[in-house]
Write a structure and sequence with these properties.
The structure holds 2 protein chains of 2 kinds.
Chain A: E1 5-9, H1 13-25, E2 29-33, H2 36-46, E3 50-54, H3 62-70, E4 77-81, H4 86-94, E5 99-102, H5 107-118, E6 129-132, E7 135-138, E8 143-146, E9 149-151, H6 155-165, E10 171-173, H7 174-181, H8 190-206, E11 214-217, E12 221-224
Parallel strand pairs in A: 1-2, 1-3, 3-4, 4-5
Antiparallel strand pairs in A: 6-7, 7-8, 8-9, 10-12, 11-12
Helix pairs in contact in A: 2-3, 3-4, 6-8
Chain B: H1 16-35, H2 42-60, H3 62-80, H4 92-141, H5 145-160, E1 164-170, E2 173-180, H6 188-200, E3 217-221, E4 229-233, H7 243-310, H8 317-349, E5 356-358, H9 360-374, E6 380-383, E7 390-392, H10 394-411, E8 416-422, E9 426-432, H11 440-447, H12 461-471, E10 475-480, E11 486-493
Parallel strand pairs in B: 6-8
Antiparallel strand pairs in B: 1-2, 1-4, 3-4, 5-7, 8-9, 9-11, 10-11
Helix pairs in contact in B: 1-2, 1-3, 2-3, 2-4, 3-4, 4-5, 4-7, 5-7, 7-8, 8-12, 9-10, 10-12
The chains are: A alpha/beta, B alpha+beta.
């Protein structure tokens, strides 16, 4: 297997500098872009396997880059965002970015996200049985069990669990979860979602699943914290 | 200003010199008639005397006119009418002539007096108008409450022909702050009346003669309850012909004073608002710059260090070296940023305007030396003449030059030239780069009143430079340099000649 090719889109040379060293040392190929325009051109030309995109680009908004990119490609995108770019980050994720890392970050965090995103994304609903740790989900039978003990979930809780476990290690935004489980009319009902996540967490915990199974990304969404296997 | 006459000018009390003057005129008329008697019919002689009477009447008033008429007719009768040298009037028509003389003299005296009265009134009005217009001009230009109060007091004193006292209420109580003339001392009873006026928000009128109380009218200014100032002036006696006119003028000056004081308060508020807005803007600039100037170094340092720790074994030595260098550079950038942050905080909390003598050229040299240490690769050429000293703070001045150099190093690669010049009323430090030129949005912002650019991801450098320039009463400007690049000018006011250096 050839080394994955990462496109780094950041206008700060210093950030590019250490990212290139770190990614090269980790066995990736890298190329650089400093503006949104360059990034889109590089995607078309070099066909990278993943894009690391800074949201504060000088020429165009990071969101615009993702919007334009998503019209023609499902290239995995990890956005680098600052804490005061919260709204932009959420919009970027809703628009189709795969994950985010907040600046400043330790390199291990970025590399972990990178590995998750580079893993082939399972086509949603492809596998009839999902496993993650002690958890087993039978999609067709809508049955859930933890260490072979059946776990009773309401239909909404089941849909919520599926939406999370289908994307192991990746952030799923509030809007994405609400849209998937309750439908597009309910994408703003975040307090509602919070209640259901609370119930689901409690049931999983009682059944013996680890606490970090469902991780909260404050303000953004939730993340299934365990690796999943088909 | 001339005091208007109290008495009625069309019937003035005769004075001795007027009487002598009238006699003189009659003597001249008598001499003329006696010299020309041979050629002059008698009735023409009579007309000459009538003319003399009219002149006296017009010049000296009603009573002297009447006396002149009698005197003229007696003289005429005595010298020129048969029998000569007697006052005996043989003919009945002489009595009619006397009556006609008296009538003409009285009428002329009356008309001339009325005319004089009108002239006096017009002159008085002109005087009052002059005071009013001077008051308007003065008050419009007044820059402090003390100035406004002082000027108003002077003008009211001119209008009321008497002393004026201004009483101010403060936390310590009532105090006469201004008197015109300055030697005038307000009595305790005056302060009492002033307090009454201030408390009631109404004019406290002078007490009549014979009663205890202040002799002055006290007006609260502004004319409302709990006003801060009370203006006291002697009432203008009703015997003065233009007293009502003058009272109106005084009211008008007081209203103008109130408006001027009001304006002053508003101006102060506006100024406070502007300062607060500036600080707010600086604060916003500070926040928006956090991402630009703080986050990138931090991200680089954290990223480089964790890369070195986690991937040490797979990094080639050159890459490790580069990461160490990056960490060091960014740590230094952070240090510079913290320096700027401190400057900014000082600008926000307000630098005291208490500056001292500073040599701008020395500050620029120090900034260049610092920049050479921070950016060893930068090409900086310095050409500074001996510049006169200015009132400033060395650290602030150095920061401006250093920030401009830092900007140039970052955005305008190439030669950086630092120079200085002396103008008639300003000293300027200039920095010229050979870069691509400033974005037009930045140009527009620099020329504007705004302290911070509304742009995102803008650094702190230029806003700080602009803020410092403003704090030092100077200005920062930029223009495209001939042959490419940008020229920045920091111009500082040059203190008046002889004041220093």
């Amino acid at each position: 297997m050839t080394a994955a090719h990462i496109l780094i889109v950041d206008d700060e040379p210093q950030i590019q500098r250490f990212l290139v060293h770190a990614l090269t040392a980790s066995g990736y190929e890298t190329s650089l872009a400093a503006t949104g325009g360059q990034a889109l051109a590089a995607v078309a030309r070099a066909q990278p396997d993943l894009m690391i995109l800074d949201l504060g680009l000088p020429d165009m908004n990071g969101k615009t880059v993702i919007e334009t990119l998503r019209q023609s490609s499902d290239l995995p995108v990890i956005v680098l965002s600052a804490h005061d770019q919260e709204m932009e980050k959420i919009m970027a994720l809703d628009l189709g970015a795969d994950d985010f890392v907040s600046k400043p970050f330790a390199i291990g965090e970025l590399l972990a996200r990178l590995r998750v995103c580079l893993r082939a994304k399972p086509a949603a609903g492809a596998a009839s049985v999902l496993r993650s740790g002690a958890l087993t989900i039978n999609r067709a039978g809508r049955e859930v069990s933890v260490t072979d003990q059946p776990l009773r979930l309401t239909p909404k809780e089941f849909d919520l669990l599926i939406a999370l476990v289908d994307n192991p290690g990746r952030v799923v935004t509030h809007r994405q979860l609400l849209g998937k489980v309750w439908g597009p009319a309910h994408v703003e009902d975040i307090p509602y979602l919070r209640v259901f996540i609370g119930q689901l967490r409690q049931k999983l915990e009682v059944a013996g699943m680890p606490v970090e199974s469902i991780r909260t990304e404050p303000g953004v969404g939730y993340r299934w914290g365990l690796p999943a296997a088909i | 200003m001339k005091r208007p006459a109290i008495d009625r000018p069309w019937m003035p009390t005769p004075r001795l010199h007027q009487l002598l003057g009238a006699v003189g005129v009659l003597i001249v008329a008598g001499l003329a008639v006696s010299l020309l008697r041979q050629w002059m019919p008698e009735n023409v002689g009579l007309l000459v005397f009538l003319t003399a009477v009219l002149i006296n009447s017009a010049a000296f008033g009603f009573w002297i006119g009447l006396l002149s008429a009698i005197g003229a007719l007696a003289t005429f009768n005595f010298f020129f009418v048969e029998p000569h040298y007697t006052f005996f009037a043989a003919r009945p028509q002489d009595l009619v002539t006397l009556l006609a003389f008296l009538l003409a003299a009285g009428l002329t005296g009356f008309l001339a007096g009325r005319l004089r009265e009108q002239v006096d009134a017009a002159r008085g009005r002109a005087d009052v108008l002059e005071v009013l217009s001077a008051a308007t001009t003065d008050l419009a230009g007044a820059a402090s409450a003390a100035e406004i109060v002082g000027l108003s007091a002077r003008h009211i004193s001119a209008l009321s022909h008497g002393p004026v006292v201004v009483v101010r209420r403060s936390d310590e109580g009532l105090r006469a702050i201004v008197a015109a003339p300055p030697s005038f001392q307000a009595a305790a009873i005056d302060l009492q009346a002033a307090e009454q006026a201030l408390n009631r928000g109404q004019v406290e009128f002078a007490t009549a003669e014979g009663w205890t109380g202040s002799r002055m009218n006290f007006h609260p200014v502004p004319a409302a309850r709990n006003a801060a100032h009370a203006f006291g002036h002697l009432p203008i006696g009703t015997e003065w012909r233009d007293h009502s006119y003058r009272e109106q003028a005084i009211t008008s000056v007081l209203q103008q004073a109130a408006a001027a004081l009001d304006r002053l308060v508003l101006t102060q508020k506006a100024e406070e608002g502007r300062v607060a807005r500036d600080r707010q803007a600086l604060r916003a600039a500070l926040l928006s710059s956090l991402s630009h100037d703080l986050r990138t170094p931090l991200a680089t340092i954290l990223g480089s260090v964790t890369t070195l720790r986690d991937l040490r074994h797979s990094l080639p030595p050159a890459a490790q070296e580069d990461l160490f260098n990056a960490t060091e550079e960014e740590a230094q950038r952070l240090a510079r940023y913290v320096e700027k942050l401190l400057q900014m905080t000082r600008l926000m909390t307000g630098v005291s305007g208490d500056f001292h003598w500073v040599a701008p050229a020395d500050c620029a040299e120090a900034a260049v030396a610092r920049a050479r240490r921070a950016f060893p690769a930068a090409q900086i050429r310095v050409d500074l003449p001996d510049l006169p000293m200015v009132r400033a703070e060395a650290g602030l001045l150095e920061q401006v030059v250093f920030s401009l150099i830092e900007n140039a190093v970052r955005y305008a690669p190439g030669l950086i030239e630092v120079s200085g010049a002396v103008q008639a009323d300003a000293v300027s430090l200039s920095l010229r780069d050979h870069g691509p030129g400033l974005p037009s949005a930045v140009m527009v912002w620099l020329a504007s009143d705004e302290l911070t650019p509304g742009m995102e991801s803008a650094g702190l450098g230029l806003p700080i430079c602009k803020g410092i320039a403003r704090t030092l009463d100077g200005a920062l400007s930029a223009r495209p340099a001939p042959g490419g690049g940008t020229e920045f000018h920091l111009s500082l006011p040059r203190p008046a000649q002889g004041e220093g250096a």
